[in-house]
Structures are given as structure tokens and as C-alpha cells.
What we know:
Elements lengths: L47 E21 L14 E17 L3 E15 L14 E14 L6 E11 L2 E13 L5 E15 L8 E3 L6 E6 L2 E7 L9 E16 L4 E14 L7 E3 L5 E3 L5 E15 L3 E12 L4 E14 L2 E12 L27 E12 L11 E13 L4 E11 L1
Antiparallel strand pairs: 1-2, 1-21, 2-3, 3-4, 4-5, 5-6, 6-7, 7-11, 8-9, 9-10, 11-12, 12-15, 13-14, 15-16, 16-17, 17-18, 18-19, 19-20, 20-21
Amino acid sequence: MKKIFLSVIGFALICRLSAFGQVKEDTLNSKTPFSLYTPVSSSDTDNYNPTALHIDEINLVSSYYKQNGDHSAITGGIGTEKVSDVSNGLDLKLVWSGNFNNKNTLSLGLGIDHHTSASSAYVTTTGLGKQGGTRIYPSFDWTLENAKTGNTFGIGAYYSGEYNYKSLGADLHFSAKTDNKMGEFSVKLQGYLDHVTLIYPSEFVQVITPVSNGATYITTASGNVVLSNGGSTKPSLPTKPRNTYTASFGYSQIINSRLQLEFLGDVVAQNGYLSLPFHRVYFSNQKDTIEKLPSSRFKLPIGIRANYFLGDNVILRSYYRYYLDNWGVRSNTANLEITYKISPFFSISPFYRYYAQTASRYFAPYEQHSPTDQYYTSNYEYAQFTSHFFGVGFRIAPPKGVFGWQNLHELEIRYGHYTQTTDLVSDVVSLSLGFK
């Protein structure tokens, strides 16, 4: 099964909040009811026009994703990759102003995904194992924006949990505009502390019940784990840590009234248990084992984004990224989206994305790994392939609201079709509703 993260895929309801808010240090002396700090002196009141906390925006997004293929990592690079996923989320943005009209934005998000995967049943050899799962991922972000300079500072926190994976994350982000407000430099520092549950294929698990105390143990590739007294309850499986640290840098520049450029770069370091224990590998001598990958990884993606206004009705949005890591993967991504405004309130946006990558030095197909290899995986995420993703989006934003409902200020529907040279194919439909 190929793990899918639904940022652009799906059909059903996801409630999404607008990006992360903006807050400034001057707001700490605010007289708003939410301030815990000393009020400003009377000499400052000429520049002090606080506004009460209010809901600025609510975004709901639902998506449905479906894929098919025949290179499941769970069965060693062969077998079904059928997956379906329904994703629903809610984003709520709260805004208020404090001293000197500095803007505070509080963003709260909650997402729920439910997926079914045919290949996950084959974690057990019978094909009768767990075939679905649910992921819950709340988020929080608080940002300060200086009304005079436009500079921002903020913090965020994240959680994601599903049956075999738990993740805690936090970030610190800030931006600074140039004196003429035509350029902006931004930095975001993120850290994720994850734990992977050690779920092994059934042929690598042997249950033993010692006579001395009646406790039941599971013997796996990592040692003995206590199950329960008498083995009558669900196993308490061990976990292993996986940490990810990212520093993201960006610089955007308004070149003229039609062209805007943005330069992007990330530095990503991972360490810990970077394999998945339920991914099988079959060697050339027909022996099998579980995936084994290095305990550290370094990634370096760099990119450029360009938006061009071609007349009053057409916007060209383009993006290019080059990626490399120390596992031997190199990739190129090129994306183009053309937004055409059919009327002042209705637009259509066809898009296309091209992607090509080289294989990791640790990848080999089914029964192609040598028993002497130090590291090995048959997960086609690390294979050499080329992919194409194309589709279209429709957006309406009438001044009196969608369907005459003034609070519903926009509605967008997107469809995309994905193909990969490994014979993986997928389709996604998404619905986004924006409320003011």
C-alpha cells in the first residue's frame, strides 16, 4: 500500500481554516478582554484602536480519493494497491486587533480522514487483517502582524494520530517585508516527534506462553513484548521514535503589476526509525524479511513560483522544484495552472503537474535484493518513475453569496487524475466551501 496524504485529493467535507494568523509583540499590552498584560499608558491611546475578537473566516473542505495499482510494499512490491480515502476538515480563523492596530490571528483546524486499503489486510498472511483506519489531526496557530511594517511572528502546534502512528509537531515562523513592501522574506522552523507502532507481518510473529506466570509474549524481530496475562486482551505493541526537523525559507518579490516571483528552499533532517515493519522484502534467494532503511535522512528541495496576470481575465500560476536527498533520490517537479475568469464571479482553472524521480540506492523490486545488502526496501515510493497529474477546478464567488447565502462567499470544486509509470492510477474530487 502506498501511503497517501490528502492535501489536494478527495471528495466529501473537510473544514479548513485559512492560513496561519498574524500577531505582533506590541499586542501584548492590548486592552482587549483577552489580554493578560498591563494596559498601555494614556500617552499611547492616540494610536490604540482595539477591535473585539471575531470570526473572520470558516473553511470546509471534503475530498474523496481512490487509487489502484499492483506494487504494494506490504507484500514485497507485488499485490494490490487499492486505497480509498474520505477526508473531512474544519478550519476556523479568529481575528482581533490590539495596540497600534496590530493584527492578531488565531487559526484552529480539525481534520478527520478515513481510509480503506486492500493491501493492509496482508499484514497477516491470511488476508483477513485490518483493512482500514482513521486519522485525526487538529492544529493551532497564532500570529502577530505589525500594522505599520507588515512583518509577522507566530507559533503553531499540530497533532496527528492513527492506529499505527502518532505525531506531535510545533513551529515558529516569521516574515519581514522590504521597505517598499514589494518584497517579503519568510522563515518557518518546524519539528515533528513521531512514534511508529511496530506492527509486523504475521509470519514474523510467534506467540509464546511461559508456564511460570501465565503471561503471554509476542516474539518479533525486535525481541519479546508482553501481551497480557493469559493473552486475552489486545496486544500492547512497542513503538519507535521518528523525528523530523525542517527549516523553510522563502522570498517573494512583486516585479511589476503583472508578475510576482517567489523563491523557496527547505532543509530537512530526519532521524530514528525510518522503515515500516509491515513492509516485506523478498530476496533473490526467495527468503523474506522486513524493510530496513538507514536511521537518518537529509533532504534538500528548492523551488521557484511565478504568477503572471495575462490581461484582466487570465492568471498563470507556475511552479518548479528540484529535490535531492542522501538516499540517492533526485526529482524534478513542474506545475502549471491557468485560471480563466469567465465572469467577475465564476472562474475555471485547468492544471497539470509533471514529476520525475530517480530510484533510491536502497530500492529493488520483488526478489531482486541480494541477501548481502545492508539496507533494502521494495516500496515503490523509492523507485524510479514519472508521473502526470492533471485536472480542472471551478470556483464561484458572487457578491451576494453562493445560492444567495451571503455568508457563503465562495464554493470550489476540483477534480484530478493521476498516472504513474509504475501503473499506479488515482482519481480525486474535492469540494471547498468558504464562509465569511
